Amino acid sequence: MDAFYASVEVLDNPALRGLPVIVGGRSARGVVTSASYEARKFGVRSAMPTAQARKLCPDGVFVPGRMNRYVEISRIVRRVFESISPIVEPLSLDEAFLDLTGTERLFGSPLDAARTLRRRMLEETGLIVSVGVTGTKMAAKILSDLAKPDGLLILAPRYVPEFLALLPVERLWGVGRVTLARMHQHGINTIGDLARRDASELRAAFGSSGPHLRNLASGIDPREVIGDWQRKSYGEENTFEHDIAPDSQKLRDVLIAHGEALARRLRADRTRARTVVLKLKLARPLGQGRYPILTRSFSLSVPTDDGAEITRVALSLIVRAPQTEKIRLAGVQVHNLARADAGQMDLFHGATPVDVVSKPQDSARSTRLNRALDAVTARFGEEAITRGFARAERAAPSRRIK
Prior knowledge:
Blueprint: H1 4-12, E1 21-24, E2 32-35, H2 37-40, H3 50-56, E3 61-63, H4 67-84, E4 88-92, E5 95-98, H5 104-107, H6 110-125, E6 131-133, H7 137-147, E7 152-154, H8 160-165, H9 177-185, H10 191-195, H11 199-206, H12 209-217, E8 234-244, H13 249-268, E9 271-282, E10 293-304, H14 307-316, E11 327-339, H15 363-380, E12 400-401
Parallel strand pairs: 1-3, 6-7
Antiparallel strand pairs: 1-2, 4-5, 8-11, 8-12, 9-10, 9-11
Protein backbone atom coordinates (compact mmCIF):
# COMPACT_ATOMS: atom_id res chain seq x y z
CA MET A 1 0.00 0.00 0.00
CA ASP A 2 1.19 3.54 -0.74
CA ALA A 3 2.11 5.53 2.42
CA PHE A 4 -0.39 3.35 4.27
CA TYR A 5 -0.79 5.10 7.64
CA ALA A 6 -0.76 8.57 6.08
CA SER A 7 -3.20 7.47 3.36
CA VAL A 8 -5.64 6.18 5.98
CA GLU A 9 -5.48 9.54 7.78
CA VAL A 10 -6.31 11.32 4.51
CA LEU A 11 -9.07 8.82 3.79
CA ASP A 12 -10.74 9.59 7.14
CA ASN A 13 -10.09 13.34 6.93
CA PRO A 14 -10.33 14.55 3.32
CA ALA A 15 -9.27 18.04 4.44
CA LEU A 16 -5.73 16.60 4.60
CA ARG A 17 -5.71 15.72 0.90
CA GLY A 18 -2.82 17.34 -0.91
CA LEU A 19 -1.08 18.33 2.33
CA PRO A 20 2.25 16.97 3.65
CA VAL A 21 0.90 14.50 6.23
CA ILE A 22 3.40 12.94 8.64
CA VAL A 23 2.35 10.13 11.00
CA GLY A 24 4.43 9.46 14.08
CA GLY A 25 5.36 10.55 17.55
CA ARG A 26 5.30 14.28 18.20
CA SER A 27 7.71 14.29 21.15
CA ALA A 28 11.37 15.26 20.89
CA ARG A 29 12.26 11.60 20.36
CA GLY A 30 9.35 10.76 18.13
CA VAL A 31 9.85 8.74 14.96
CA VAL A 32 8.09 9.06 11.60
CA THR A 33 6.17 5.90 10.75
CA SER A 34 4.56 7.11 7.52
CA ALA A 35 4.71 10.19 5.32
CA SER A 36 2.48 11.18 2.43
CA TYR A 37 4.14 11.71 -0.94
CA GLU A 38 3.63 15.46 -0.49
CA ALA A 39 5.82 15.24 2.63
CA ARG A 40 8.36 13.00 0.93
CA LYS A 41 9.09 15.79 -1.55
CA PHE A 42 10.75 17.57 1.39
CA GLY A 43 12.91 14.54 2.18
CA VAL A 44 10.75 13.15 5.00
CA ARG A 45 11.00 9.36 5.27
CA SER A 46 9.83 6.56 7.57
CA ALA A 47 12.05 5.88 10.61
CA MET A 48 13.30 9.49 10.53
CA PRO A 49 13.31 11.36 13.88
CA THR A 50 10.29 13.66 14.10
CA ALA A 51 12.55 16.60 15.02
CA GLN A 52 14.41 16.18 11.73
CA ALA A 53 11.12 15.89 9.82
CA ARG A 54 9.95 19.19 11.33
CA LYS A 55 13.10 20.92 10.12
CA LEU A 56 12.69 19.52 6.61
CA CYS A 57 8.95 20.16 6.46
CA PRO A 58 7.95 22.85 8.98
CA ASP A 59 4.48 23.19 7.44
CA GLY A 60 3.79 19.46 7.64
CA VAL A 61 0.66 18.16 9.34
CA PHE A 62 1.84 15.87 12.14
CA VAL A 63 -0.63 13.29 13.46
CA PRO A 64 0.09 10.78 16.25
CA GLY A 65 -1.32 7.73 14.49
CA ARG A 66 -4.21 5.37 15.26
CA MET A 67 -2.99 1.79 15.19
CA ASN A 68 -6.45 0.30 15.79
CA ARG A 69 -7.74 2.03 12.67
CA TYR A 70 -4.79 0.85 10.60
CA VAL A 71 -5.36 -2.72 11.75
CA GLU A 72 -9.05 -2.40 10.84
CA ILE A 73 -8.20 -1.31 7.28
CA SER A 74 -5.46 -3.93 7.11
CA ARG A 75 -8.04 -6.69 7.55
CA ILE A 76 -9.88 -5.41 4.47
CA VAL A 77 -6.57 -5.22 2.57
CA ARG A 78 -5.89 -8.84 3.47
CA ARG A 79 -9.35 -9.89 2.23
CA VAL A 80 -8.69 -8.22 -1.12
CA PHE A 81 -5.36 -10.03 -1.40
CA GLU A 82 -7.08 -13.33 -0.67
CA SER A 83 -9.73 -12.63 -3.31
CA ILE A 84 -6.95 -12.76 -5.91
CA SER A 85 -4.96 -15.75 -4.63
CA PRO A 86 -5.40 -18.33 -1.87
CA ILE A 87 -1.65 -18.23 -1.24
CA VAL A 88 -0.85 -14.96 0.54
CA GLU A 89 2.28 -14.36 2.62
CA PRO A 90 1.99 -11.10 4.61
CA LEU A 91 5.09 -9.00 5.22
CA SER A 92 3.37 -6.35 7.33
CA LEU A 93 -0.04 -4.77 7.88
CA ASP A 94 -0.12 -3.42 4.33
CA GLU A 95 2.18 -5.61 2.24
CA ALA A 96 2.20 -9.22 1.09
CA PHE A 97 3.39 -11.68 -1.53
CA LEU A 98 0.73 -13.37 -3.67
CA ASP A 99 1.36 -16.55 -5.67
CA LEU A 100 -0.60 -16.24 -8.91
CA THR A 101 0.02 -19.83 -10.01
CA GLY A 102 -3.26 -21.36 -11.16
CA THR A 103 -5.26 -18.10 -11.15
CA GLU A 104 -5.23 -17.75 -14.93
CA ARG A 105 -8.73 -19.16 -15.37
CA LEU A 106 -10.12 -16.52 -13.00
CA PHE A 107 -8.18 -13.43 -13.99
CA GLY A 108 -6.24 -14.18 -17.16
CA SER A 109 -2.59 -13.17 -17.34
CA PRO A 110 -0.56 -12.01 -14.30
CA LEU A 111 -0.88 -8.46 -15.66
CA ASP A 112 -4.68 -8.80 -15.71
CA ALA A 113 -4.64 -10.19 -12.15
CA ALA A 114 -2.56 -7.24 -10.96
CA ARG A 115 -4.93 -4.78 -12.58
CA THR A 116 -7.88 -6.53 -10.95
CA LEU A 117 -6.14 -6.35 -7.57
CA ARG A 118 -5.55 -2.61 -7.89
CA ARG A 119 -9.15 -1.96 -8.94
CA ARG A 120 -10.63 -4.05 -6.12
CA MET A 121 -8.35 -2.43 -3.55
CA LEU A 122 -9.53 1.03 -4.54
CA GLU A 123 -13.17 -0.06 -4.50
CA GLU A 124 -12.95 -1.83 -1.13
CA THR A 125 -10.70 0.53 0.82
CA GLY A 126 -10.53 3.80 -1.10
CA LEU A 127 -6.73 3.41 -1.04
CA ILE A 128 -4.02 2.88 -3.63
CA VAL A 129 -1.79 -0.19 -3.89
CA SER A 130 1.37 -0.46 -5.98
CA VAL A 131 2.19 -3.86 -7.47
CA GLY A 132 5.29 -5.59 -8.81
CA VAL A 133 4.94 -8.84 -10.78
CA THR A 134 7.72 -11.22 -11.80
CA GLY A 135 9.06 -14.71 -11.16
CA THR A 136 10.82 -14.27 -7.78
CA LYS A 137 9.88 -12.77 -4.44
CA MET A 138 12.84 -10.44 -4.13
CA ALA A 139 12.49 -8.99 -7.62
CA ALA A 140 8.72 -8.56 -7.17
CA LYS A 141 9.36 -6.63 -3.94
CA ILE A 142 11.84 -4.33 -5.68
CA LEU A 143 9.44 -3.79 -8.58
CA SER A 144 6.60 -2.86 -6.23
CA ASP A 145 8.86 -0.31 -4.52
CA LEU A 146 9.90 1.20 -7.85
CA ALA A 147 6.25 1.33 -8.98
CA LYS A 148 5.27 3.71 -6.16
CA PRO A 149 3.23 5.77 -6.02
CA ASP A 150 0.12 4.29 -7.62
CA GLY A 151 1.93 2.08 -10.11
CA LEU A 152 2.24 -1.39 -11.58
CA LEU A 153 5.42 -2.92 -12.97
CA ILE A 154 5.66 -6.38 -14.54
CA LEU A 155 8.83 -8.08 -15.76
CA ALA A 156 9.32 -11.40 -17.50
CA PRO A 157 11.58 -13.66 -15.36
CA ARG A 158 14.26 -13.92 -18.04
CA TYR A 159 14.94 -10.19 -17.77
CA VAL A 160 15.38 -10.17 -13.96
CA PRO A 161 19.24 -10.39 -13.90
CA GLU A 162 19.52 -7.56 -16.42
CA PHE A 163 17.00 -5.49 -14.47
CA LEU A 164 18.82 -5.99 -11.17
CA ALA A 165 22.33 -5.35 -12.47
CA LEU A 166 22.28 -1.53 -12.39
CA LEU A 167 20.44 -1.15 -9.10
CA PRO A 168 22.37 -0.17 -5.94
CA VAL A 169 23.40 -3.23 -3.94
CA GLU A 170 21.46 -2.06 -0.85
CA ARG A 171 18.25 -2.96 -2.70
CA LEU A 172 18.93 -6.61 -1.84
CA TRP A 173 17.47 -8.21 1.27
CA GLY A 174 20.20 -8.80 3.80
CA VAL A 175 22.32 -5.81 2.82
CA GLY A 176 21.96 -3.53 5.80
CA ARG A 177 24.09 -0.61 6.94
CA VAL A 178 27.04 -2.70 8.19
CA THR A 179 27.08 -5.10 5.24
CA LEU A 180 26.72 -2.21 2.82
CA ALA A 181 29.81 -0.49 4.23
CA ARG A 182 31.79 -3.72 3.81
CA MET A 183 30.45 -4.15 0.27
CA HIS A 184 31.70 -0.70 -0.63
CA GLN A 185 35.10 -1.53 0.87
CA HIS A 186 35.30 -4.45 -1.57
CA GLY A 187 34.30 -2.25 -4.52
CA ILE A 188 30.75 -3.64 -4.72
CA ASN A 189 28.32 -0.79 -5.40
CA THR A 190 25.65 -2.29 -7.66
CA ILE A 191 23.84 -5.60 -7.69
CA GLY A 192 25.63 -6.36 -10.93
CA ASP A 193 29.00 -5.88 -9.21
CA LEU A 194 27.96 -8.49 -6.65
CA ALA A 195 26.69 -10.96 -9.26
CA ARG A 196 30.05 -10.86 -11.08
CA ARG A 197 32.13 -11.71 -7.99
CA ASP A 198 33.39 -15.23 -7.32
CA ALA A 199 31.37 -17.17 -4.72
CA SER A 200 34.49 -18.28 -2.82
CA GLU A 201 35.69 -14.67 -2.60
CA LEU A 202 32.33 -13.58 -1.20
CA ARG A 203 32.29 -16.45 1.31
CA ALA A 204 35.70 -15.36 2.61
CA ALA A 205 34.55 -11.74 2.92
CA PHE A 206 30.95 -12.18 4.15
CA GLY A 207 30.67 -15.74 5.43
CA SER A 208 27.80 -18.00 4.40
CA SER A 209 25.64 -15.01 3.45
CA GLY A 210 28.07 -14.09 0.65
CA PRO A 211 27.10 -16.83 -1.85
CA HIS A 212 23.42 -16.40 -0.93
CA LEU A 213 23.54 -12.68 -1.73
CA ARG A 214 25.35 -13.48 -4.98
CA ASN A 215 22.51 -15.81 -5.98
CA LEU A 216 19.95 -13.08 -5.26
CA ALA A 217 22.02 -10.65 -7.29
CA SER A 218 21.98 -13.14 -10.18
CA GLY A 219 18.18 -13.37 -10.03
CA ILE A 220 18.23 -16.76 -8.30
CA ASP A 221 15.66 -16.79 -5.49
CA PRO A 222 14.02 -20.20 -4.95
CA ARG A 223 11.97 -19.09 -1.93
CA GLU A 224 8.29 -19.86 -2.36
CA VAL A 225 5.33 -17.81 -1.20
CA ILE A 226 4.31 -19.38 2.12
CA GLY A 227 0.53 -19.35 2.31
CA ASP A 228 0.23 -20.80 5.81
CA TRP A 229 2.20 -17.91 7.30
CA GLN A 230 1.70 -17.51 11.02
CA ARG A 231 2.66 -14.74 13.35
CA LYS A 232 5.83 -15.58 15.30
CA SER A 233 5.77 -12.83 17.92
CA TYR A 234 3.96 -9.79 19.23
CA GLY A 235 5.61 -6.69 20.63
CA GLU A 236 4.99 -3.23 22.07
CA GLU A 237 7.70 -0.67 22.75
CA ASN A 238 8.09 2.94 23.85
CA THR A 239 10.83 5.55 23.42
CA PHE A 240 10.90 7.93 26.38
CA GLU A 241 11.05 11.67 25.87
CA HIS A 242 13.65 11.79 28.68
CA ASP A 243 15.96 8.97 29.79
CA ILE A 244 14.68 7.19 32.90
CA ALA A 245 16.17 5.07 35.67
CA PRO A 246 15.60 1.28 35.66
CA ASP A 247 13.96 1.47 39.10
CA SER A 248 11.55 4.30 38.18
CA GLN A 249 7.79 4.04 38.47
CA LYS A 250 7.48 5.33 34.91
CA LEU A 251 9.25 2.24 33.59
CA ARG A 252 6.92 0.01 35.59
CA ASP A 253 3.86 1.87 34.30
CA VAL A 254 4.99 1.53 30.70
CA LEU A 255 5.67 -2.20 31.07
CA ILE A 256 2.23 -2.67 32.63
CA ALA A 257 0.62 -0.83 29.72
CA HIS A 258 2.57 -2.91 27.20
CA GLY A 259 1.67 -6.16 28.97
CA GLU A 260 -2.02 -5.27 28.85
CA ALA A 261 -1.84 -4.22 25.18
CA LEU A 262 -0.13 -7.47 24.22
CA ALA A 263 -2.68 -9.50 26.12
CA ARG A 264 -5.56 -7.76 24.32
CA ARG A 265 -3.97 -8.56 20.97
CA LEU A 266 -3.35 -12.18 21.95
CA ARG A 267 -6.95 -12.65 23.07
CA ALA A 268 -8.27 -10.97 19.93
CA ASP A 269 -6.30 -13.49 17.85
CA ARG A 270 -7.23 -16.41 20.14
CA THR A 271 -3.53 -16.96 20.80
CA ARG A 272 -1.38 -17.44 23.89
CA ALA A 273 2.35 -16.97 24.43
CA ARG A 274 4.82 -18.93 26.51
CA THR A 275 7.92 -16.67 26.39
CA VAL A 276 8.03 -13.07 27.59
CA VAL A 277 10.94 -10.85 26.50
CA LEU A 278 11.95 -7.54 28.07
CA LYS A 279 13.74 -5.19 25.67
CA LEU A 280 15.71 -2.18 26.90
CA LYS A 281 17.69 0.35 24.88
CA LEU A 282 20.29 2.00 27.10
CA ALA A 283 20.87 5.74 26.91
CA ARG A 284 24.57 5.30 26.11
CA PRO A 285 25.37 6.50 22.56
CA LEU A 286 27.51 4.20 20.43
CA GLY A 287 27.75 6.67 17.57
CA GLN A 288 25.81 7.00 14.29
CA GLY A 289 22.52 7.07 16.19
CA ARG A 290 23.05 3.64 17.74
CA TYR A 291 22.51 2.60 21.37
CA PRO A 292 23.09 -0.68 23.24
CA ILE A 293 20.05 -2.97 23.26
CA LEU A 294 19.55 -5.56 26.00
CA THR A 295 16.99 -8.36 26.06
CA ARG A 296 16.01 -10.63 28.93
CA SER A 297 13.49 -13.45 28.61
CA PHE A 298 11.61 -16.04 30.65
CA SER A 299 9.42 -18.93 29.49
CA LEU A 300 6.30 -19.93 31.37
CA SER A 301 5.33 -23.54 31.86
CA VAL A 302 2.00 -22.90 30.10
CA PRO A 303 1.16 -20.23 27.49
CA THR A 304 -0.88 -17.25 28.68
CA ASP A 305 -3.00 -14.42 27.30
CA ASP A 306 -3.38 -12.67 30.66
CA GLY A 307 -2.00 -9.13 30.90
CA ALA A 308 -1.27 -9.42 34.63
CA GLU A 309 0.81 -12.55 33.99
CA ILE A 310 2.78 -11.02 31.12
CA THR A 311 3.38 -7.89 33.18
CA ARG A 312 4.57 -9.83 36.22
CA VAL A 313 7.19 -11.58 34.15
CA ALA A 314 8.30 -8.38 32.40
CA LEU A 315 8.66 -6.53 35.71
CA SER A 316 10.58 -9.41 37.27
CA LEU A 317 13.09 -9.31 34.39
CA ILE A 318 14.13 -5.74 35.22
CA VAL A 319 16.42 -7.04 37.96
CA ARG A 320 18.37 -8.97 35.31
CA ALA A 321 19.32 -5.73 33.53
CA PRO A 322 22.03 -3.26 34.59
CA GLN A 323 20.74 -1.04 37.39
CA THR A 324 23.23 1.81 36.90
CA GLU A 325 22.40 2.98 33.36
CA LYS A 326 19.53 5.15 32.21
CA ILE A 327 17.01 3.73 29.74
CA ARG A 328 15.99 5.30 26.43
CA LEU A 329 13.48 2.72 25.20
CA ALA A 330 11.54 -0.12 26.82
CA GLY A 331 9.51 -2.82 25.18
CA VAL A 332 7.83 -6.15 25.83
CA GLN A 333 7.60 -8.99 23.32
CA VAL A 334 6.01 -12.42 23.50
CA HIS A 335 7.12 -15.51 21.58
CA ASN A 336 6.43 -19.26 21.43
CA LEU A 337 2.82 -18.84 20.45
CA ALA A 338 0.02 -21.40 20.66
CA ARG A 339 -3.66 -21.38 19.81
CA ALA A 340 -5.78 -20.51 22.84
CA ASP A 341 -7.91 -23.65 22.48
CA ALA A 342 -4.80 -25.86 22.60
CA GLY A 343 -3.73 -24.97 26.12
CA GLN A 344 -4.12 -26.61 29.50
CA MET A 345 -4.45 -25.43 33.07
CA ASP A 346 -1.27 -24.36 34.85
CA LEU A 347 -0.79 -25.91 38.29
CA PHE A 348 1.60 -23.13 39.31
CA HIS A 349 -0.02 -20.22 37.48
CA GLY A 350 1.96 -17.02 38.03
CA ALA A 351 5.49 -18.39 38.41
CA THR A 352 8.15 -15.84 37.45
CA PRO A 353 11.95 -15.79 37.62
CA VAL A 354 11.83 -14.29 41.12
CA ASP A 355 8.69 -16.09 42.24
CA VAL A 356 9.20 -19.69 41.21
CA VAL A 357 5.98 -21.00 42.70
CA SER A 358 3.23 -18.56 43.58
CA LYS A 359 -0.29 -19.22 44.78
CA PRO A 360 -2.62 -20.82 42.27
CA GLN A 361 -5.11 -18.26 40.92
CA ASP A 362 -8.69 -18.64 39.89
CA SER A 363 -8.26 -19.07 36.14
CA ALA A 364 -11.99 -18.77 35.49
CA ARG A 365 -12.07 -15.47 37.40
CA SER A 366 -9.13 -14.12 35.36
CA THR A 367 -10.88 -15.17 32.16
CA ARG A 368 -14.06 -13.34 33.17
CA LEU A 369 -12.08 -10.25 34.12
CA ASN A 370 -10.20 -10.21 30.82
CA ARG A 371 -13.42 -10.71 28.89
CA ALA A 372 -14.90 -7.69 30.66
CA LEU A 373 -11.78 -5.61 29.99
CA ASP A 374 -11.94 -6.51 26.31
CA ALA A 375 -15.60 -5.51 26.12
CA VAL A 376 -14.90 -2.12 27.69
CA THR A 377 -11.92 -1.33 25.47
CA ALA A 378 -13.76 -2.50 22.35
CA ARG A 379 -16.54 -0.03 23.06
CA PHE A 380 -14.68 2.92 24.57
CA GLY A 381 -11.07 2.52 23.40
CA GLU A 382 -7.87 1.17 24.89
CA GLU A 383 -7.43 4.18 27.19
CA ALA A 384 -10.86 3.72 28.80
CA ILE A 385 -9.62 1.32 31.45
CA THR A 386 -6.12 0.39 32.56
CA ARG A 387 -4.43 -1.56 35.30
CA GLY A 388 -3.34 0.92 37.99
CA PHE A 389 -2.23 4.24 36.49
CA ALA A 390 -0.40 2.67 33.58
CA ARG A 391 -0.13 4.78 30.44
CA ALA A 392 2.39 4.37 27.62
CA GLU A 393 2.85 7.46 25.48
CA ARG A 394 4.54 6.04 22.42
CA ALA A 395 7.10 7.92 20.38
CA ALA A 396 5.25 6.54 17.36
CA PRO A 397 2.69 3.84 16.56
CA SER A 398 4.75 0.86 17.68
CA ARG A 399 2.75 -2.28 17.12
CA ARG A 400 5.40 -4.77 16.15
CA ILE A 401 4.43 -7.57 13.78
CA LYS A 402 6.88 -10.26 12.75
